[in-house]
Amino acid sequence: MLGPGAIASKAGEAVDGVFQFGLVADAQYCDCDDRRTRHYRASLGKLKETVGTFNKLDLTFTVQLGDIIDRHVESFSDILLIYERARGPKFHVLGNHDFPIGSDEVVQRLGMPNQYYEFRREGWRFIVLDTSDISFHANPEGSEKYEQAEEIYEDLVQRGAVNAKTFNGAVGDEQMAWLRGVLAGAERRGEKVIVFSHMPVYPKNSHNAWNDDALIEVFESHDNVAAYFNGHNHQGNYGEKNGIHYVNFRGMVELDTNAYATVRIHPDRLEIDGYGRELDRVLEVSNDRVPA
Known about the structure:
This protein is α/β, with parallel strands linked by helices. A hairpin with a 2-residue loop joins strand 10 and strand 11.
């Protein structure tokens, strides 16, 4: 079914996308009893189903949008064994639940090149952000980044911000400077950009990254950002602002029904094929968006 922000395709339209990739959000596996709507153990079976679907398709790569585990470092072994069965390149995003060990150890365990990074495919640039960069869960108490998290969080609390939650985080100054440089480089090369992250930034929501407005400002200062894809809010969400699509994919860990997606890239649109609880969407990509 089509979700909010969707544009119905013409009946019988041929599927002629340049390439497509798979997306998984918030598997949040652990060998733990269910808690309200979260079925932790069931994520192993759900991810097996997902990988089975992906391996029947011609996917260029697969991305998991963070929180592949819920807790316990030993959870990585079981869930990664399944994710690694997906054919082709596989990429990870760091989520707030992924830190039962230090951030460097998590990056190594997941085989990531860094906490944030970028890659290219078929004339598109893909940027992976770490919204746990400045946070309580990813940094040891007393560290510089932990103290920065305390300052940002207290300021948000004083201002009554809806996203003043301890399970959120922010992109730090060093990463922000890197982001600006990557976007500028992609712009010079004429590359459209899709950003992957764990925490949403738009629309306003209690799950948003602490510096959501600053990130949106950076995205809008360039004309080549097409979309921002994230997890974190298990209910899912969608918004469009100044030509950029913000899609919050639904959490796999929730309920008995699975949730995952594929994204097909066309020059003028992104076609999201949702499975289970995830929605289908067709998002227009503007080739003449003016930066703010």
